[in-house]
Design goal:
heterodimer; A: mainly beta; seven-stranded mixed β-sheet
């Protein structure tokens, strides 16, 4: 089944403890991106990648890192999480700049205490 | 800075009625997306609009794009309860995949 897989689905962690949220897609998509969704603020893009080893900042990149060493994987790294990073995170992928939208993962609900 | 505004943010309508959701954006863009999100779920792609005058339809939903007015509309025809969800438009900054989403329109269709 064609999909974007995020892990974990739920995570509670403490301030300052490094964590990684994994994202993998099996559709050979070129483009991948990360979003956070907060009540009243909608979805905001954190980082995006248009190819292997090519990443760029979205609207809210502070406090996050990404890497794209392989086409299928696009992990989101929080080096020193803080409570204001408590949010619902979505990974998404797309074939490229054509008449198709992004396929979203199921989301990761992160709580930083 | 690209800004995307959706109106209304909340919409309660009766089954069988028609209504339109509006999505305005502030700068030139190559494409506009519409997504649907059910409560507690992920986002589902509905439409991708690529050019001025583009119109796409799927079931009771029809989306259109006017790039000169920087406006997209999502028209709902004869609403049914199953259409209850939050609808987002998203616009990319031309030439990149930097996407900006509207805040979403929460649609509730009442019997």
């Amino acid at each position: 089944e064609a999909q974007v897989t995020q892990n974990p689905r739920y995570l509670i962690t403490v301030t300052g403890k490094k964590l990684t949220v994994t994202c993998s897609q099996n559709m050979n998509h070129e483009y991948m991106s990360w979003y956070r969704q907060d009540p009243g603020l909608g979805l905001r893009q954190i980082y995006y990648s248009m190819n292997v080893e090519v990443t760029d900042k979205g609207d809210v990149p502070e406090g996050y890192k990404v890497s794209r060493k392989e086409k299928r994987n696009f992990p989101l790294i929080l080096e020193s999480p803080s409570p204001n990073q408590t949010s619902l995170y979505f990974c998404a992928s797309s074939l490229g700049r054509g008449p198709w939208g992004y396929t979203f993962g199921s989301g990761t609900r992160l709580t930083v205490v | 800075e690209l800004k995307v505004e959706q109106n209304p943010l909340f919409l309660s309508m009766q089954e069988g009625k028609n209504y339109t959701i509006y999505c305005n954006y502030s700068t030139t863009s190559d494409r506009l997306y519409w997504y649907r999100q059910d409560p507690g779920k992920s986002l589902e792609s509905l439409f991708v609009l690529l050019s001025n005058g583009a119109v796409k339809q799927e079931g009771r939903l029809m989306a259109s794009l006017d790039t000169k007015a920087r406006l997209s509309t999502l028209h709902i025809t004869a609403a049914v309860h199953d259409l209850s969800a939050t609808y987002f438009c998203a616009v990319d900054i031309g030439g990149s995949e930097k996407l900006v989403f509207g805040k979403g329109t929460k649609l509730t269709v009442n019997p």
